[in-house]
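Lab notes, practical 5.
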Amino acid sequence: MERRHSVWDSAATEKPLVGGDVTEGVVRSGDTVRRPRGASSDRVEALLTYLERVGFTGAPRYLGVDDRGRDVLTFVDGEVAGRPAPEWVGSDDRARSVASLLRRYHDAVASFGVPKLFHDVSPVRLDGAPDPLPVPQDLIGHRDVTLENVVFRDGAAYALIDFDLARPSSRIDDVCTMLQWWAPWQPIEDRPEPLVPADVFARAAMMVDTYGLDAHSRSMLVPLARNAAERTWYSMRLRAERDGGGWRRMWDSGAGDSIRRRQAWLKENEDALIAAVT
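Output from the prediction step:
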């Protein structure tokens, strides 16, 4: 069955779902989520349908479109960190479970390969930015394993949500993103309050060990994190100028300054971070 042509009726009762920075108009309707269709819709549909086919339970199911043309996905019930972040994001056990969930996702999606549908979302050249490091782009990464995009049940990471940024990637790209938010590899002034006292070196080592990253990939983590931080400043500026909306709001609220601080923090702590993860 072509799922995108499965039409669902709109429900009378809809509750806005808040927390995302970019996508607007996302609502919960019963046990489903309704999202406006966008540039990533076909890719998300293909990815979630594949994950369901291979039995991966840590992601929403794609159900079709409703009579208002919105994507319909299952609502994954559980705890999700909002803003301000709850105290439990500082739990080492929860961080460890995020690494385990990400590993299960990568193992499940590896056989999906990189379908042609995803070829047009490869990294673009950004004027003034360094080129991306040459790492294998051999699977579809989530690319956005933030505090707000992991659903927890019974104190453990249960599912990843919001696959809008999924694109050709590598395991270490996703691990870097995970460490940025969950270790967290950020200066103290930009961390959520519960993560201010975190030992970012021990926590990163714990998460990388739990994931089971190989030795070569471990050696690439810090250079990749620094390269990604350098590129992110340019990509965020481009999206703010080109796409507006949530991207513009994030940029105007100081996202560029925050990225610059992270660049400096990664450079200052490079040796200690390398020692921790290798």
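Observations recorded by the TA: The first strand starts at residue 7 and ends at 8. The chain has two domains: 3-74, 79-277.
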